[in-house]
Amino acid sequence: MTALLISLAASTLAMTLIVAVRYWATSGAFAWVTSRVRPGLYDKLRPQIGREIRWSLYSAVIYGVPAGVVMWGWQERGWTAIYADVTAYPLWYLPVSLFIYLFAHDTWFYWTHRWMHRPKWFKIAHAVHHDSRPPTAWAAMSFHPIEALTGAVVIPVLVFLVPIHVAVLGTVLAIMTLMGVTNHMGWEMFPRWWTEGPLGRWTITASHHQRHHERYNCNYGLYFRFWDRVCGTDKGLGAFEEKRI
Hints:
about 65% helix, mainly alpha, 10 helices, two-stranded parallel sheet, about 0% strand, 2 strands
């Protein structure tokens, strides 16, 4: 029993460190890019960035614990539907499983995000995220622990229900991290032909999420604009200030 607990604790600690380092490296990289592409944009936001980093590191623990349990269960007990043999399922299932995970995650995020905007829960939890005015590349995981918990459970639940190759799972986590960061940078990295073209009408970028931080009551999605469009909460693209003085 002692060895089991030590193994489980080591897995959760390792995943917590991985989540924290992934956040720090990705947000730090895009913050550096921002300093080059939009010099001065974050100059007056240092106290806010400090809060974003602090809340994000708390969130890293909340994300890391269930991830560590899942990783331990997969490696030590074979509990999950994660597979490593690429021939276990047809090759066409690889992109299908990627889409299933992204769409399921987006669905969960949309509805929990709308719920977080109800006055009671906004005041209790989601206000932490909206304290970032404007959001920066460091705000991707700046959540109250309650909100972090709602985000931390969805992928661990999915890996018990939907088979996924370990490399595709890594791709899901990479997309989740990249979109979480780039949607909050305070400027648009994608060209206009993307944001205002056919792809942009169905996918979320910083311009779309900026409108959410402007108006609060719209644009709740994470990856896709599908639920916003279906539910009438899509209010188009927001605008950015080039530099804050």
